[in-house]
């Protein structure tokens, strides 16, 4: 502790700067979080599952289902959510706040690791740009399984760097844990595998003739594998019970490659688009016009820094991290969304921080260039910051709609349906169940009234709609209609 305080005394300005950066990151992520957070069907499904885990002790063996490939993630994210949902008394804002804290902690880690890999300027610049990144803010203020991915990816890569460069083999079991968490946030974490494997081999080769070190290395590797398998075991148990459902989905994803992956990178036409999207969304605050030019400049400057600096090992691991990611994403045939890149968010900012941190320690002209670029990137991110947008208020609107239905149901049981092109009813069900409303699922029993929420505007026609929960109610007609923002709420009864 004395060493820590003495370090602060010697670097007062640096620690004051990182304190302000962390405070800024936290404020940007927590600002009106309850109004900005996403709360649709996926989020409603997640909190329903975690609520039942907390209140009923229903253990969870699988996580969310992937949008492509019909595969299931592991359940670790649900167990991460549980303490936050419990402490917030089942308020969905709790898990969103947890993600904001995780995102802010990731900002601090980029400073710490950037300082270790490069210099203090690189650490501060990396953290500053990550703190104000519009994409990082958006995906740090909602409860969604991909959102913590940057943290676990960063810890995994930092761990293998420590193993490779500093022979700190105690990191290996931790890497097994972090990699399992990363995979259970999103399966694109698989692209971390080649990075970890390559530097594991590069660590092993020089110590093959050192029996003591080799023994420790292998022992720690075995522990890492066992911990990894332990954390992934719920998925194995699920597969054993369901005839290998997940394994078969994985096999289909990689063997039926017409619509999924192209395993020949030379035939891919998506290499440059992936790079441009990465640069535009993460470096240029989602502005696309200058992405090709900035991509070339990053390549040139990073090559120059590699040749001129003493950061060879540090830059190698960042290059390999980004290289495997871009290669993997370029052979993926489906649309690449920006949240898919969560496992390289820190890598992009570490690379930019390395370049600017190197320039700022050179002659006056380069210092001036670096200063202008830092100011530009910082202000650009603030100009296009998502906190300046109007909040979606999805959580509040959902609860208001539920409260209205409870009031208009007059204490009588009701069936419920949702008409929406890009949503499903789990978010509404969460509040209906929590408030002990008279909700009865249509497959369980048909009662005397049906409430329908329409999210599709004026063209919505609930009478005779083919949605299962509406169609199963049978012939009906509207006897009441209300509106909350763009939501239209209908009460229907049976037509005699």
Q: Which percent range describes the beta-strand content?
A: 5-15%
Uncertain segments are none
Helix content: 55-70%
**Oligomerization category of the chains in this entry:** single chain
Q: How many separate helices?
A: 21
- The value of Rg in angstroms is 25 Å
What descriptors fit this protein?
21 helices; 496 residues; mainly alpha; 61% helix; 2 domains; transmembrane helix; single chain; pentosyltransferase activity; glycosyltransferase; 6% strand
What does this structure look like?
- The protein folds into 2 domains: 21-388, no CATH class; 394-494.
- It is built from 21 helices and 4 strands.
- The protein has helices spanning 2-10, 12-30, 33-36, 41-56, 76-87, 93-117, 120-132, 134-138, 149-166, 171-185, 192-204, 211-241, 245-255, 271-282, 291-308, 312-330, 345-359, 364-383, 394-408, 426-434, 468-471, and strands at residues 415-419, 449-454, 476-484, 487-494.
- Strands 1-2-4-3 form a 4-stranded mixed β-sheet.
- Helix 20 (426-434) links the parallel strand 1 and strand 2 (449-454).
- Helix 6 runs parallel beside helix 17 (345-359) and helix 19 crosses helix 20.
- The longest helix is centred in the middle third of the chain and has 31 residues, at 211-241.
- It is globular, with a radius of gyration of 25 Å.
